[in-house]
Amino acid sequence: MRKTQSVVNLDPIAVNNKRDNSILARLFKTRRFGGKKINKEIPYGHYMFCGSQGGGKTASMLWYFERLCKQYQKKGWKINKIYSNFGIGEKISKNTLFSTFLDLPELNREDKVINFFLLDEFHTYFPKDNFDRATKLLVGDLVQCFSQLRKRHCFVLSSSQIYGRLDKSLREQCLYMIQCRRSKISNKLVNDFIRGDDILCDDLGRWSGNPERIYVHGLSTIKFNSSLIIKE
What pTM value is reported for the model? Predict the structure, then answer.
């Protein structure tokens, strides 16, 4: 009988993380102290929806946008601004993205106001291995904005066919990468929410990561025109 071969993970970072983050390892390291608890934060940030053509990444992005709107409006929050590059809310493009961020005022934690940016095919604006000087400068400006989304109460929901095709600096600002696909059983959309901090990505754009949560859902009620981005 042929001996079964096991697959060994050769990535030292992944091996070390698995060892250091085990339950027993953390139990022996942990020291607990008193003090006031930190208030729970609203998860503002960049959510990047990825998947193949026809895999439902834009539809999933809109479903999650609709879900967030309903969730916070029920709590008495106001949806202040909605920007997109495919016909929802106010129009935005690659060249107006940075200035639009800057125009939004900084808000206090108590201000019940939320802003949304919906960016379809985001990797076409800022692809990996881009050598255009103007685009590189714009990426640097946007990284500063993306690192302060909480101060302006912003959710950025973007889509890209492949996670690794987006510029690395912007990729590192992702709070979650959401891998999108269609269920072969129910024909609904399946979304794997993977924390950006937990994703390993190589120079070829390949990635690995375990989902923190998984959503299975249908389509949103919002209509959109994805061809608008091609006409910019």
Answer: 0.83
